[in-house]
Write a structure and sequence with these properties.
The chain is of the alpha+beta class and 842 residues long. The protein has four domains: 201 residues, no CATH class; 186 residues, no CATH class; 217 residues, no CATH class; 173 residues, no CATH class. It contains 26 helices and 19 strands. It is elongated. Pfam families: FtsX. InterPro entries: ABC3_permease_C, Macrolide_Exporter_MacB.
């Protein structure tokens, strides 16, 4: 039967080309999706883990307050399989130049060359004790060049202006560094110098915060990791060993409340891609096998056994599946390479990295073959289960009036009863691993029942086509007369449109939720401290005056600014050592404008407190009395206690201070990440405030949003592949439907239907089916997308329903137009065939 299979592939190559293209796109879709996971992890390692991305293993202290010693470095250097060890130290500093000072972080560059975290854009890395290298952003902002001198002095949170004692160092710039892609460090200047300079700035041996290891060629990472853990277990500092990818993901988990939601979402997307691809390939291949039922039955009549028929069909499927899957896997790599290259064209997304996982390629090929074989197995078994002469007769279509229809309805109802509670429950309790199988079962249930309600929906909508005359009425009647054929055509488009709509709504809702979550963690874009609040001489202005807000508002890129006045104190939490902390006053309307977290509502009788402060009643003490307010806990550790100006007046004799210790600044939405430094620099100039006194989370939040945008860019681009898969399915089913109806269409021609009317009938039939299935797909996809996003990241906060209505409408129109275009070729083929020749077809 292998000879029969090969002859079929040769004789009906056009049919198999269509199926092969569907399989190729499905596998490319699946491989691309799987590569999103590996590439995203690699991109995170290159951004969040930029400082250690060249290492094979990293050792961190379990308590961030601990530090490693020189003995730890010596111990690890003797572990078999470890080629080199780099103990990275860092220190917060202020770098003064002729154009002002900048707040930054300095690390030492005595790492082995293969572990050096910094990259020189121009010049060289520090080779002498008096050299320093500075990042390109800082060099551009402060007009620094190679050979210029920087005065470096240590800085702390309590003393942002830096220590002016003898620990300051004058260093010569030897090189300009590539800007960092780490969103946690992007707001600071990045400096590299020698260990000796770093030790002097630190007032002693600099704190070693991490140990980076490079393994010897051929060393087994698992074995070396075990040996490192054993060696460090005998040292006084408790530590943990991670790979760069694990360390980067650990940072993501820290930012998302200790949950590795990223991996869960990517795995879920891969499962969805596999599910959708399997449905599309199975639907397309099943229609082709169904068209050959009479041919297979004829082979049975001339002596072929059931096992031979099944073997022939499975051999065809295996050959088509293998070739198409190999091409699809390569295409998937090409798609990801193109998307990563596109992302890297934006300098702020230079961290995007392509990581080709061999397991993903093998998975795509195996899944493609298995899908094809399984898709061919069921119709082949159906053709061999009946007697040959019975198989030569037309089979009854599934409907409520026969057993096949009732079985499909029962199966669909069972799947819906099982899937819907899981889907809704998973979304309600924010459990993606529960919602995911529920969504798959629910969608399968809809597909099983599709043949029972889609034809009726098409008939109802088909009344709109009556204005076209006979072709419109015939198109509507065809959908009712052959529900199986209508459902096969509709299912291909339903799958694609549902996936596209699901990802659009899911991505939009997830991005809105993540943006809201980042706004909660980073409630203020920019904070400007007054340099005159500490250490000022007699008569010097204490803080910012009332005109400071107007000055800040006038800076290009600033949306709003607010002056924070110190109006009282409240007891600090016991776990923070007790004592008191200052309370500031703001007008509620001003607070709403300047805070990025719009969930924080400042009102009389309440006080907004940081996440470290417990909620509940608190007592605030002013200069003339006390007041008890209800504490509203923010989701940010860095939030300052803020009360309303009206409440502040009640405990300060009806008046407020004329000056404030700091400004809160909200940047305009039009400000791009690359422009934030420019706006911050302009703020410092306008307010006459040194750069070390200006801080905030605008750059960090913008950088994290860039990471999110890169991921969503890749996912959104994959939707184009899903659309192509759906269109291939529609084209296949329409073409095969026309072939199946050759005698029927020829009879209509013989009864007087013109070629133009025949083409119009087939086109209207395609548009009616596409319109109904696309509308249903948009509704289903929107619901699945929002529920999926809620189940995935609902634990981080509220997930709004964010649907791109214009894009969804565009998807609906594209589906209808695509179905219309897909009907052109089969309609022309049917119209060209003469009635006599068509009636003679067997």
């Amino acid at each position: 039967m292998l000879r029969v299979a090969l002859s079929q592939l040769k004789a009906h190559s056009r049919r198999f080309i269509a199926v092969g293209l569907a399989i190729m796109l499905a596998v490319a879709f699946l491989v691309s999706t799987l590569l999103v996971s590996s590439s995203t992890k690699a991109s995170l390692a290159a951004s969040l883990g930029e400082s250690y991305h060249r290492a094979d293993l990293i050792v961190f202290p379990q308590d961030s307050r601990d530090a490693f010693t020189a003995q730890d470095l010596k111990t690890l250097s003797t572990v078999p399989g470890v080629a080199s060890v780099y103990g990275q130290s860092s220190l917060m500093t202020v770098a003064d130049s002729r154009d002002g000072g900048s707040f930054g972080a300095v690390i030492q560059n005595t790492a082995p060359a293969e572990l050096e975290p910094a990259t020189a854009r121009s010049g060289i890395l520090p080779g002498r004790e008096g050299d320093v290298a500075v990042d390109a952003h800082t060099a551009e902002q402060y007009h620094l060049g190679i050979g210029d001198v920087l005065r470096i002095r240590p800085a702390t949170v309590q003393n942002p202006g830096g220590d002016t004692a003898s620990s300051q160092q004058d260093l010569k710039i030897s090189g300009i560094l590539e800007p960092t892609a780490d969103p946690l460090r992007g707001s600071m200047s990045q400096l590299v110098t020698s260990t000796q300079v770093l030790d002097r700035l630190s007032g002693g041996p600099a704190k070693v915060a991490q140990l980076q290891l490079k393994l010897s060629p051929g060393a087994d990472p698992g074995t070396v990791r075990t040996a490192v853990e054993h060696a460090m277990g005998a040292q006084p500092v408790a530590s943990s060993v991670r790979t760069p990818q694990e360390a980067a993901l650990e940072q993501v988990k820290h930012l998302t409340g200790g949950q590795d939601q990223l991996t869960i979402v990517l795995v879920a997307f891969a499962v969805i891609a596999l599910f959708v691809s399997a449905l599309v390939v199975a639907n397309t291949f099943s229609v082709i096998i169904a068209q050959r039922t009479r041919e297979l039955a004829l082979l049975r009549c001339i002596g072929a056994t059931r096992s031979q028929i099944r073997s022939s069909v499975l051999a065809e499927a295996a050959i088509v599946g293998l070739v198409s899957s190999l091409v699809g896997a390569l295409a998937g790599v090409g798609v990801m390479a193109g998307l990563i290259a596109l992302a890297k064209t934006d300098p702020s997304r230079s961290f995007a990295t392509l990581a080709v996982d061999p397991v993903a390629l093998a998975t795509g090929v195996v899944v493609g073959m298995v899908m094809t074989v399984v898709a061919a197995l069921f119709p082949a078994r159906g053709a061999t289960r009946v007697a040959p002469l019975a198989a030569l007769r037309p089979a009854d279509d599934a409907s409520l009036g026969n057993r096949r229809g009732r079985v499909r309805l029962v199966i669909g109802a069972i799947l819906l009863l099982l899937g819907l509670p899981l889907l809704l429950g998973g979304a309600w309790f924010n459990q993606l691993l529960v919602a995911l199988p529920g969504g798959l079962l629910t969608f399968l249930g809809v597909l099983f029942c599709a043949g029972l309600f889609i034809p009726g929906a098409v008939r109802a909508v088909g009344r709109l086509a009556r204005a076209s005359g006979v072709p419109g009425r015939l198109a509507a009647l065809n959908a009712v007369r052959n529900p199986a054929r209508t459902s096969a055509t509709a299912s291909a488009l339903l799958i694609g449109v549902t996936l596209v709509s699901m990802m659009m709504v899911g991505a939009g809702s997830a991005k809105a939720a993540l943006s809201s979550g980042l706004a909660e963690h980073y409630p203020v874009d920019v904070t400007v401290l007054s340099p005159h609040t500490t250490g000022s001489s007699a008569g010097a202005p204490q803080g910012f005056g009332p005109t400071a807000v107007q000055t800040a508002d006038s800076v290009n890129g600033v949306a709003s600014a607010a002056l924070l006045r110190t109006v009282g104190t409240l007891p600090a939490p016991a776990e923070q050592g007790g004592g008191t902390q200052e309370v500031y006053a703001l007008d509620p309307a001003t607070a709403h404008d300047v805070l990025t977290d719009k969930n924080l509502r400042l009102a009389n009788g309440t006080i907004v407190v940081p996440k470290s402060h417990p909620a509940g009643p608190v007592t605030v003490t002013g200069s003339r009395g006390t007041i008890t307010l209800q504490a509203v806990q923010a989701n940010a550790w860095t939030m300052l206690p803020v009360m309303t100006e009206d409440d502040a007046r009640s405990i300060n004799g009806g008046a407020l201070p004329q000056t404030g210790t700091q400004l809160w600044v909200k940047l305009a939405d039009t400000v791009q990440p690359s422009d934030i430094r420019t706006v911050v620099n302009a703020l410092g100039t306008a307010l006459n405030v040194p750069q070390p006194y200006i801080s905030g989370a605008a750059i960090e939040r913008a950088s994290f949003e860039e990471v999110i945008n890169v991921l969503l860019l890749v996912v959104t681009a994959l939707l184009a592949v899903a659309v192509f898969i759906a269109l291939i399915g529609v084209a296949n089913t329409l073409s095969l439907s026309v072939l199946e109806r050759t005698r029927e269409n020829s009879l209509l021609r013989a009864l007087g239907l013109t070629r133009r009317q025949l083409r119009l009938m087939l086109a209207l039939e395609a548009v009616l089916i596409a319109g109904v299935s696309a509308l249903l797909g948009v509704l289903l996809g929107s619901a699945f997308g929002w529920l999926g996003a809620k189940s995935a990241i609902g634990g981080l906060g509220a997930v709004p329903f964010d649907a791109p209505w214009a894009a969804l409408l565009g998807t609906l129109l594209v589906a209808v137009v695509a179905a219309l275009l897909a009907s052109i070729v089969p309609a022309r083929r049917a119209a060209r065939l003469s009635p006599v020749e068509g009636l003679a077809t067997t």
